[in-house]
Amino acid sequence: MFNADKFIEEETARLEREVKGKAIIGASGGVDSTVCAAIVGKALGERLLAVYVDTGFMRKGETANVDKMLRRLGVNHIVVDASDEYFTALKGVIEPETKRKIIGEKFIRVFEREAKKFGAEYLVQGTIAPDWIESGGGIRDTIKSHHNVGGLPKDLNLILVEPLRDLYKDEVRKVARALKIEVAEKQPFPGPALAIRIMGEPTRESVEIVREACAIAEEEIEKAAAAGKMKLPWQYFAVLLPVRSVGVQGDIRAYGYTIAVRAVDSVDAMTANYSKIPHDVLEQISIRITNKMKDKVNRVVYDVTNKPPSTIEWE
Ligand code: XMP
């Protein structure tokens, strides 16, 4: 039986013993990196620098929230706006694995810059067991190059520290709860963020659409779950499809984009069932999305596929 308090105590002691210099960590606001930053911060104090990179693909309000949370946890951190660099690097890129590679590499490059400034010798990463297992850790073939693993350049000059490497998601959540981190109940979010929820080129315009759609889907689903209308799904979000279909705007027919809503129930992300969301909740999501983005989105669909054969994300 996994004991979160024992894990924190032993891991903090090990980090104090083994990490002798300064360390840097990328804090995305996700459960894994936040737990990681908190534990390493406990062991190293000011010798840890958490870098939050605003890639331009984060969820609505994410940057401000993460900043606030890290401050509350007492983690030494900075926020870097690298969105211009990301949009430039992703110009014309539509292939999912290429997106992941570019995003992962840029991530590390931004780090390296900050790491040099800070004088870091160690790179802390919130990699958890399913990340490296699905990235070809020897047990399974590569399914997706999760940016934590796949984007690591060969010439990285920092020593890698991965405190959560052997933990599964439910164990990380237990550790988060023990650390009183509010993200404990937050749904998982992919490292490449909204860039892989845009089927096509990630631009400032497309990310605005999917960001708004994700925020509405999240709000409506959370509201319905809080009201006891449905169980909160394990993961729930929106995806922007590249197809445009005909709709009506007033008296005229107009082309608009399609948003796909995805919600799944799962335990460890290895398999998942689509969530049986009540139709009135789906309708509310659809109405709000198409009202909010009248001239851009005219169709909302719900994904009713399980994993397998699908994956949870669309890319
Ligand atoms: P899939 O889509 O493979 O997703 O069923 C399984 C879980 O992993 C998340 N995911 C990612 N996480 N980098 C990440 O850190 C990625 O590139 C990535 N791709 C998918 C996904 O959100 C789900 O929770």
Layout of helices and strands:
Elements: H1 4-18, E1 23-26, H2 31-44, E2 48-54, H3 62-72, E3 77-81, H4 83-89, H5 96-118, E4 122-124, H6 129-134, H7 147-150, E5 159-161, H8 169-178, H9 204-226, E6 235-249, E7 252-266, E8 272-274, H10 279-292, E9 297-302
Parallel strand pairs: 1-2, 1-4, 2-3, 4-5, 7-9
Antiparallel strand pairs: 6-7, 7-8
Helix pairs in contact: 1-2, 1-8, 2-8, 9-10
Bound molecules: xanthosine-5'-monophosphate.
Please tell me about this protein's structure.
- This protein is an alpha/beta fold and 315 residues long.
- It is 40% helix and 19% strand.
- The protein contains ten helices and nine strands.
- It has helices spanning 4-18, 31-44, 62-72, 83-89, 96-118, 129-134, 147-150, 169-178, 204-226, 279-292; strands spanning 23-26, 48-54, 77-81, 122-124, 159-161, 235-249, 252-266, 272-274, 297-302.
- A five-stranded parallel β-sheet has the order 3-2-1-4-5, with helices on both faces. Strands 6, 7, 8 and 9 form a four-stranded mixed β-sheet that branches.
- A hairpin with a 2-residue loop joins strand 6 and strand 7 (252-266).
- The longest helix has 23 residues, at 96-118.
- The chain is globular and about 70 Å long.
- Residues 100, 144, 146-148, 188, 190-192, 235, 269, 307, 311-313 line the site of xanthosine-5'-monophosphate.
